[in-house]
């Protein structure tokens, strides 16, 4: 009787009536329609560059910015990229100055390539070393501190990186490959010791990718650089290790 009176009153006032409750059904506003939250914006220019390594996202980071030096063939205060072209069939690598023709698949939207060549941009943050040394120089600690802060940025959650060691062209092929791997391991250890929890894979390229091709013995060739790996990176990572025959 009370419910009937309420319904009649609602009709008289032009208000919507209450539909009979369905037993066992609960209505939750917005249920099933919510979209996943977008990833947070990077907190620094260096984090933005590492998250999406291209000319646009890295333009705000100069050679002297944030205490981090970037590779540059001219020494000008601009970021220059070193695109690494990996041959998944032959286990070889070469560098080119042009960006990849196709943007890397960092989201896992497409099947991972298993054959052919894959071009990936290297952000090319240089950690330099003394001759015949795998110990990080004291004057490079500021760069490592900047890297640690950027790699801890929530915007990079889910990213993985190849930490690539390089040498100059002095010494034997096999020795340089081993030295470059130890340099990459040294930097990786410093980063993980600074509580970087992202997957970091140290690999050595020896003298395969020289920064200064005009002077293969130049000290700037003794370095470690960083390359963000695609979402499905098994074959890419295997190829980076095959460059020096690991």
UniProtKB/TrEMBL annotation:
<dbReference type="InterPro" id="IPR006665">
    <property type="entry name" value="OmpA-like"/>
</dbReference>
<keyword id="KW-0472">Membrane</keyword>
<protein>
    <submittedName>
        <fullName>OmpA family protein</fullName>
    </submittedName>
</protein>
<feature type="domain" description="OmpA-like">
    <location>
        <begin position="116"/>
        <end position="232"/>
    </location>
</feature>
<feature type="signal peptide">
    <location>
        <begin position="1"/>
        <end position="21"/>
    </location>
</feature>
<keyword id="KW-0732">Signal</keyword>
<dbReference type="InterPro" id="IPR036737">
    <property type="entry name" value="OmpA-like_sf"/>
</dbReference>
<dbReference type="InterPro" id="IPR006664">
    <property type="entry name" value="OMP_bac"/>
</dbReference>
<dbReference type="InterPro" id="IPR050330">
    <property type="entry name" value="Bact_OuterMem_StrucFunc"/>
</dbReference>
<dbReference type="Pfam" id="PF00691">
    <property type="entry name" value="OmpA"/>
</dbReference>
<keyword id="KW-0998">Cell outer membrane</keyword>
């Amino acid at each position: 009787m009370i419910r009937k009176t309420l319904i009649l009153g609602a009709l008289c006032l032009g208000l919507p009536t209450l539909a009979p409750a369905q037993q066992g059904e609960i209505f939750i506003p917005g249920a099933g329609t919510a979209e996943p939250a977008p990833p947070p914006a990077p907190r620094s220019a260096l984090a933005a560059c590492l998250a999406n390594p291209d000319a646009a996202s890295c333009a705000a980071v100069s050679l002297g910015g944030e205490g981090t030096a970037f590779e540059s063939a001219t020494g000008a205060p601009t970021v220059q990229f070193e695109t690494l072209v990996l041959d998944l069939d032959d286990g070889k690598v070469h560098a080119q100055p042009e960006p990849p023709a196709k943007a890397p698949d960092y989201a896992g939207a497409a099947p991972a390539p298993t054959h052919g060549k894959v071009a990936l941009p290297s952000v090319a943050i240089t950690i330099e070393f003394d001759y015949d040394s795998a110990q990080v120089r004291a004057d490079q600690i500021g760069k490592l501190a900047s890297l640690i802060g950027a790699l801890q940025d929530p915007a990079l959650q889910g990213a993985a990186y190849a930490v690539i060691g390089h040498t100059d062209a002095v010494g034997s092929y096999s020795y340089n490959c081993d030295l470059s791997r130890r340099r990459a391991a040294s930097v990786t250890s410093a980063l993980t010791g600074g509580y970087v929890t992202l997957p970091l894979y140290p690999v050595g390229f020896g003298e395969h990718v020289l920064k200064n091709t005009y002077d293969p013995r130049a000290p700037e060739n003794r370095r470690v650089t960083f390359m963000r790996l695609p979402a499905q990176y098994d074959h890419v990572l295997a190829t980076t290790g095959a460059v020096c025959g690991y």
